[in-house]
Design goal:
about 130 residues, alpha+beta, Alpha-Beta Plaits, four-stranded antiparallel sheet, three-stranded antiparallel sheet, 4 helices
């Protein structure tokens, strides 16, 4: 399994519409992602900067790249183009991130943990709400 992360951005004032269009994504697009080995995929918004952080767990870079050639993906890009900076082919402008740390499995005792109350507790810090 490969962890893939990248950043994109959403146009000013389009944050709510971006989120609305992802709730849910089209079933046919989800099927394409799964068929191409995407095990998990999440996108997070940093509202003050309008930066989107995307994280995916994929089987291979080749299968991930092949998603871009599917009609479902091309349609999705066209559907989202008015909400975010896009390339000439309508794909979103994105910048890959390099993984500098990773940990799999359950956290050991003393690690950051999300409590049932919805708070994130980091060692040496006060709990804060997780949204």
């Amino acid at each position: 399994m490969i962890r893939k992360a990248f950043v994109m951005s959403v146009a000013p004032g389009m944050e709510a519409e971006y989120e609305r269009r992802h709730r849910p994504i089209w079933p046919e697009l989800e099927a394409v992602l799964r068929a191409h080995g995407v095990r998990s995929y999440a996108i997070f918004l940093d509202a003050p900067t309008r930066q989107l952080f995307a994280y995916a767990e994929i089987d291979s870079e080749e299968r991930w790249a092949a998603i871009a050639q599917t009609p479902e993906c091309r349609r999705w890009w066209a559907h989202m183009r008015d909400l975010m900076p896009s390339n000439p082919d309508a794909s979103p402008v994105a910048r890959d991130l390099r993984e500098v740390f990773g940990m799999d499995g359950l956290p050991p005792s003393g690690s950051p943990e999300v409590r049932k109350s919805g708070s994130l507790s980091l060692p040496g810090s006060s709990a804060r709400s997780v949204e």
